[in-house]
Amino acid sequence: MTFEEQLPALIVLGYGAAAGLGYLGGKWSGRAKTWALTLAWLLGIATTVTWLVVAVGVSGLVTIVSLLVFAPLAITYLVVVLGRLRRRRAGGDIDSVWPRMFLGGGALCFLILAANTMINGLTYFIGLAYDVELHVTGSHQGSSMTSRTTVSGEYLLHGENHVLDHVQWLAFEQLPAAGETIRVAIGPLWPNPLLANATNAGLLMALGIVAAIPGVLLTMVVAREKANARNHREQSVVVEDGRHDG
After folding, report:
1. Keywords on this record (predicted)?
2. Which residue, 193, 190, 132, 138, is CA-closest to 161?
3. Using an 8 Å Cβ cutoff, are 225 and 100 in contact?
4. pLDDT digit string (tens) for 152-200?
5. Per-residue pLDDT tens for 89-129?
6. Parallel, antiparallel or unpaired: strands 150-157 and 160-168
7. Is the bond into 176 cis (omega within 30 degrees of 0)?
8. CB 61, CB 207: distance < 8 Å
9. What are the two backbone dihedrals, phi and then psi, of residue 192, each rounded to the nearest 5 degrees?
């Protein structure tokens, strides 16, 4: 049995162990609690990274982390700093709306992406994905470290012929060969991802959860900046009233 065939079981064990450590950490106290929670986080991160490396390769992992983690953090930091500098130069008398609009737009994009990805994955488990026969025209067994494992083929849906061209194979099972016909599912929402099995659909839902994290964080930053702006306005009114009373 290859590592990729063992991977689904290892993923379940990894997340299960992380959840168990997190539960124990919540019950314990002191240094034991700190160690348990730290190990839970490290084990969860290690399991996720291993899953993504096998699924999309190192380059794909770097791209995902850059788009979903580093880019939002950098943009958030830049927008918040520029907004505060502008308020400081104006003496705190203005409410800079455009940083919140920019961050809100980014949050909305991430949340829409997350919802689309999670819904497509979920449809496989609740029977709403399209069940089709995929006529495989080509496949490529890539290395998890250097290249992607892909499959190409054609399927008929709603009376129309659809073509898959080098779509990533995330099923973690034997790659079909050219000429084979296999039963797969197709996600109902654009871009209609290939859902070869439950592991594939589960990975798609996990990626959706990852995409939701920056969306939620950006939403929290927007709410915080809005609250700060409101506090600045209230303080300015109090100071102005104090001057008039004096």
Report:
1. Membrane, Transmembrane, Transmembrane helix
2. 132
3. yes
4. 999 999 899 999 998 888 777 788 999 999 999 999 998 899 999 988 8
5. 665 555 556 667 777 777 888 888 889 999 999 999 999 99
6. antiparallel
7. no
8. no
9. 50, 65
Amino acid at 137: T
- Are 118 and 95 in contact by the 8 Å Cβ rule? The answer is no
Q: What is the identity of the amino acid at 94?
A: I
For 133, 148, 151, 165, 206, the CA distances from 179, given in Å and listed in that order, are 12, 20, 12, 15, 31
For β-strands 160-168 and 181-186, DSSP reports them as: unpaired
Instruction: Fill in the DSSP letter of residue 136.
Output: E
End-to-end Cα distance, the chain: 83
Long-range contacts of 92-101 (CB under 8 A, 24+ apart): 92/232, 92/235, 92/236, 93/236, 95/229, 95/232, 95/233, 96/229, 99/225, 100/222, 100/225, 100/226, 100/229
